[in-house]
Every structure is written in structure tokens, then in C-alpha cells.
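U., I forgot to send this yesterday:
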Amino acid sequence: MQFLDQAKIFIASGAGGDGAVSFRREKYVEYGGPDGGDGGRGADVIFEAREGIGTLIDFRYTQHFKGKRGGHGMGRNRTGASAPQQLITVPVGTEILADDDNRTLLADLTRAGQRVVLLRGGDGGKGNDHYKSSTNRAPRQFQPGFPGNEMWVWLRLKLLADIGLLGAPNAGKSTFINAVSNAGAKVGAYPFTTLKPQLGVMSHKGRELVVADIPGLIAGAADGVGIGDRFLGHVERCRVLLHLVDASQPGPVDAWATVRDELDAYGGGLADKPEVLVLSKADLVSPQGLAAKKRALEAAAGKPVLLLSAATTTGLDAVRDALLEAASLGRAPVGAGGRAWTPL
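Result:
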């Protein structure tokens, strides 16, 4: 299934039904009086988060959602039927934002089964029974149903995961997620092998953590270069960042600093999240060269650096242990709306 993390849709709640103009017509009752019922309520527009949906691709083909009108009132003081709710199901982790700036957060659906009423349907109008008086015993006045509301909104899907994988292109992120889960991410010896975020589940010491693998980040990502701002948005909710730096390339400190600069530029608290820093592809570097790069990176980052070869699984358990510890200390993910994403 194709992955889509942003979509623009039109939603409209239903109008209320009109009140009825009716009079009692019974045998032996010559002047029965008004008995027009009220109109029914129009459909509300409700969003619900459901498990098992991992993309917004359906909204590329269906972009208009209009609630039905409430039923009109009827004689014998019968109220028109309320329209059924206009229910829109979205993946867990979907944000709903106003169309005017693609920034104002209207709702954030982070739990399965969570619902939000975004637009209320119009109320039904009153029937002529409400307009009788001592001077007007046969009113023909009724109230039309109230109109519904309508608006364009943006849907933005942010993956919910415990661990977010970060790094420059071809840093070994997909190899890592394949080594610790059954994600089946595409692996290749060239940059941008991963073109869309994907999830895997890491099991270690009786616990399970969801890992999100996002495409590689380059300079300017926070400003939309390589649509990196969209990729950074997917790690906003993660508890821990696993930052992989390719040990086989020259200048690991520069590669680490580039990604850190983009975290700072993006904002949203990304730069403050717990980070496990790892030199990946350790099997491709001599022991002396690896030790020198480790010392340089630790000096620049001011924190310990782990060594990992996901291809040979060397150092894999140490990284898992560090992630478990960091995840237990990391705060629960919180949606914050954030900046507008670069359109595709």
C-alpha cells in the first residue's frame, strides 16, 4: 500500500430539517389546530482514529465528505429523523489542522478509538405548533432548518513510535531496523534507499519497542530540502532518538553536526529528546581508525558513542540495552501541531 502522510479534504456537516406546517384532521374535530413537528438535526462530522490504518492514501481519491440533512418535521407533532453521523476514520497519530495556515491544530488523534466532533450539524427548525397563540390559532409559520458548517482541513500523519532512527542518507538505518525487527526495509549501498517512513517492533529482554525508520536527512532538511521537514515530523512523538553515524565515511563529526543542526532548526523539542549516539558500519573500518573516530565524535557530542555493525550484529545488544534504558526515561510523546510541511 502506498504511504501518504498528508492530505487536504473538504468537510461539511448536514443542515437541519425544516419544521412542518400541519393541522389536525380528525373526525368530529372541526378545528384541530396546528400539529407540525420539528425538523431533525443535521449530521455531525466526526473523526475517529483506528488501528490497522497506516496511511492517508484513501484521502487522495476521496476528498469531499458531506453530512446528510436532517429529516423534515411531520404532522401529529412528529419530529424529523436526525441524520446519521458523518464518520471519517483516520490512522492513529493523525493531526487535523486548519486550512488557512496549515499550522493551527484542531485535533490530535493519538489513541485508537479516540473521537472528535469537528463540525456540528445544524439544528432542526420548529414546526407551526410552536407559533400558535391566543390570537393566531392556525399559524402557517414554520422555521427552516439551520445550515451546517463547512471547511477545508489538512490531515497530517505522524508516526507513533518509541524510537526514531536518525542519520544522514545511507547511514545504516534500514539495516539496523531489519536486524532488530521484521520490518523488511529496503537496503542498498546508495543514498536514499529509504524513501518513506516505516515501522518495526524491537523485542528485547521481555519488552517491545516500536522503531520508526525515516529517510536520511541532509543540510536544509528542516526548511524542506529533500522534504526533510516531513521526515522530521515523524519523529516528533518518539521518546528516544537513535542517531546513526556512518563510520566508513570521512568526517563523522560533520555528519553528526549536520543532523543535530536540523533538529535545532526544526524545533518542536526534537533537539531535547534523549539521544543514543552510534557509529554504524563498524566492520568496514580498521580498529585504529574506528577508535580515532569514536574519540572525535565523543568529544564533539559530549556523550558516549556506541559501536555497531548491524550487518554482523556486533554491538547490537549494547545498542538495544541503551535504547531500553533511554526509553524508560523518555517522556511520553506529545503532539504539538508544529510548522507547515513542504507539499509533495
